[in-house]
Design goal:
about 450 residues, alpha/beta, 3 domains, 4-stranded parallel β-sheet, 10 helices, 16 strands, globular
C-alpha cells in the first residue's frame, strides 16, 4: 500500500489510520472516539490495530490503494509504516509499538523507543515545515517514513535532540526512587495523587507530536500508574489532569468516564482567600487540566484540596460517583484534522450562526427554570470556533444547568464547559434565539 497525503487523496479508495476518514475511505482503523474499529483487531492504540490488520487481510477491501492520516504523531506514523512497509515493520513490531505507547500515552516500555518518540516530537516542530497544517502533516510523513528504520536502529545518533529531555526523564525517575515523588492511588475514583517535593524536576517532556507539558516528565508518572485522573501536589501548587486514555476507545481495561473539571475550578476559586486564579480546560480536549495561574500558589492546604477533590460532601463538583446525568464518554465522530489545536476565541459580542436550538430530553428550556426560585439565570461564559473542537461527548443537563444541542456548530465554551452532541461545549448555557449564540455578562 502507498502513503498519500490526506489532502491529496481526492476521493480515491483509502485506508485511514489513527484519524477520521476522508471521502473515498473504505476502511478506518483508529482508536479515536466515534469510529469503531473493525471487529477482531480492536486494541488500545491505532498502531497495534494496524499490525493486527496485517494478520487479517480479509478485512482490507480489494480496491484500497492508499493509506493516510489527517494528523502527524507517533501512533499514526507507526500505523502507516506497518501498512506501507509490512515486512520491515513486522520485524520491529514490539519496538514500534513501544514508540507509539511513548508518544500517545506517555508510557515508557523501552527507553530507546521513548527516545525515538522524543525525536519525532521535535521533528514535528521543525523550522522548515509548511505553515498549513495539512500540508505540514503530509510533508512530515513523507520525510519520516523513509527515515524511521534509521531512527529505530541508531537513535543514539540523535542525542543532541533527545538528550536534555531524556535527562529530565532520568531525574524524574530518580525522584520516585528516592521518595521525593510519591504516588497514592484511589482506585474507586480512578485517581492517582502525585505528591512532589519542591526540588523535583519541572522541565517536563513532550506529549504527542510537538506538544510539551511542564513538571515531572509525563512518562515517569504514566508508566507508574494506570489511573486516568492525575492530581499533582507540589507544595501549594496543584493541578489535575485527565489522561488521554479517557478520550480514546481503550480496549484493555475499563476507564472511568471523564468529568468536567470546571465546576471544581469554581469551587476551588470560592475557597481561595488570596489572589490565586483557578481555571479548567475543556473536558473534550485530549488532556483536560485544572490548574492555577502561572507560578501561583493556593491558599488552600493540601489536605483540604484533596478533600474538595474526593470527599463525599464535595463530590458534586469533585471526582466522586457519577450522577446519571453526568458527562459520558463520546461515541460521536471526531472530525478534527488537528486534535491538539486550540480553538480561536471570537471577539466578544460576535454571533455564531447556527440552526435552531433544541433542548436535550428532560433538560430545562429556559433560563428562568434552571435553578431555585429567585436564583439568577446561568451565564454563557463565551464562544470560540475551531474545527479542532468537533470531538465531544454527550451531556444531559445537571441540576441548575441548561444543556443545548446546536447541530453543526463548533463552539467551545471558555469557562464552565462540557461538550454537547452538536459540537458546542458548555456546562452553563442559556437558550438564546435561534441563530444567535453570543457572549453575555
Amino acid at each position: 500500500m502507498k502513503f498519500v497525503p490526506y489532502q491529496l487523496l481526492d476521493g480515491r479508495p483509502s485506508v485511514v489510520v489513527d484519524g477520521s476518514p476522508a471521502p473515498g475511505t473504505v476502511l478506518n482503523v483508529t482508536h479515536w472516539p466515534g469510529y469503531p474499529p473493525p471487529a477482531g483487531i480492536e486494541d488500545d492504540l491505532s498502531a497495534q490495530m494496524a499490525f493486527r490488520l496485517l494478520e487479517r487481510p480479509d478485512l482490507v477491501p480489494g480496491e484500497a490503494e492508499a493509506v493516510s492520516n489527517n494528523h502527524f504523531d507517533q501512533d499514526g506514523l507507526v500505523s502507516i509504516y506497518a501498512l506501507v512497509a509490512p515486512d520491515d515493520a513486522v520485524q520491529r513490531r514490539t519496538f514500534l509499538e513501544d514508540v507509539a505507547f511513548a508518544g500517545d500515552l506517555a508510557i515508557c516500555r523501552d527507553r530507546d523507543a521513548a527516545r525515538v518518540s522524543m525525536v519525532l516530537s521535535a521533528l514535528a516542530n521543525g523550522d522548515n515545515l509548511p505553515a498549513d497544517y495539512t500540508e505540514r502533516t503530509g510533508a512530515l510523513y513523507e520525510d519520516v517514513l523513509g527515515r524511521l528504520p534509521e531512527l529505530c536502529d541508531h537513535v543514539e545518533r540523535h542525542r543532541d535532540v533527545w538528550g536534555d529531555e531524556d535527562a529530565t526523564l532520568e531525574a524524574s525517575d530518580a525522584a520516585f526512587k528516592d521518595g521525593r515523588a510519591v504516588i497514592e492511588e484511589r482506585p474507586d475514583l480512578d485517581l492517582a495523587v502525585v505528591t512532589l517535593a519542591e526540588d523535583t524536576p519541572e522541565a517536563g517532556g513532550h506529549r504527542f507530536s510537538g506538544d510539551w507539558v511542564s513538571g515531572l516528565h509525563p512518562m515517569a508518572v504514566n508508566t507508574r500508574s494506570e489511573r486516568v485522573t492525575l492530581a499533582r501536589l507540589r507544595g501549594r501548587r496543584y493541578d489535575v489532569e485527565l489522561r488521554y486514555e479517557g478520550w480514546v476507545q481503550l480496549q484493555s481495561r475499563p476507564v472511568r468516564p471523564r468529568r468536567d473539571l470546571a465546576p471544581l475550578a469554581a469551587r476551588l476559586q470560592d475557597e481561595e482567600t488570596g489572589d490565586a486564579v483557578w481555571s479548567a480546560t475543556p473536558v473534550s480536549g485530549l488532556l483536560p487540566r485544572l490548574h492555577l495561574g502561572h507560578g501561583q500558589e493556593s491558599s488552600i492546604s493540601p489536605d483540604h484540596f484533596l478533600e474538595l477533590l474526593t470527599d463525599p460532601p464535595h463530590r458534586a463538583p469533585g471526582l466522586g460517583p457519577l450522577h446519571p446525568q453526568e458527562l459520558t464518554p463520546c461515541r460521536e465522530p471526531c472530525s478534527s484534522p488537528n486534535p491538539s489545536a486550540r480553538a480561536e476565541p471570537l471577539t466578544p459580542g460576535s454571533p455564531v450562526a447556527a440552526p435552531p436550538l433544541q433542548a436535550l430530553p428532560d433538560a430545562p428550556t429556559s433560563a428562568t427554570s434552571t435553578g431555585p426560585p429567585g436564583s439568577p439565570p446561568p451565564r454563557v461564559a463565551g464562544v470560540g470556533v475551531g474545527a479542532a473542537d468537533r470531538q465531544g461527548a454527550r451531556l444531559a443537563a445537571p441540576p441548575g444547568r441548561v444543556a443545548l444541542v446546536v447541530p453543526g456548530a463548533s463552539a467551545p465554551i471558555d469557562g464552565a464547559c462540557a461538550r454537547l452532541p452538536g459540537g458546542v461545549a458548555g456546562a452553563a448555557a442559556r437558550v438564546l434565539p435561534p441563530g444567535a449564540f453570543r457572549w453575555t455578562s
